[in-house]
Task: structure prediction
Amino acid sequence: MLKGSTNVEFELQNKTGKNISSSMADQLSIIIWEFKRAKYGQVKPEKTDNSFTFILRLYWMKSRSVLTSTKMSSTRKSAMFYSGNQVVDTIKCVVFETRQLKKAMLAGSLEYIDKQSGRIVNRVPVKVESVFKNSYATLQGDPDAAGEDSRELLKSKKAAYPSSDQMILDATEEFSKKAREIILSE
Result:
């Protein structure tokens, strides 16, 4: 689609109400011209030629942050020690597991617009998520009664949830990567 274009302009339309990195247009412009040089031997002209211009519009429609989700569970564990067929000792513990989760979703589309006619030639929906996950556990009782999986989880610690702004910025980066994949596959 972009092979014969003599110029590619980028527009960002942010309808989410959130701050989203505007440097993405500059990054994508560089990507387009690197792609055109590698695939078609075209280089960006010093003087803009608008005879066959495409506008690539990144249109962000929705942004959603799932605020903190914390799930807690407990598991009773025990281990028995034998001497022959006789149980000589039983040790027990309770493992309290906590799972932290936070997601941010960014959805929109990448639109190819013929600048001469103003027509949308192609529209590709884009939806991405940034995800923060963390799990950790505490123990009450004898640690030797916990299984290997529980011991690994006990080494983990509670982590601070990232801010909603950081989650949106991370989603913006993912959106940029996805848009790049779409553009380069055209």
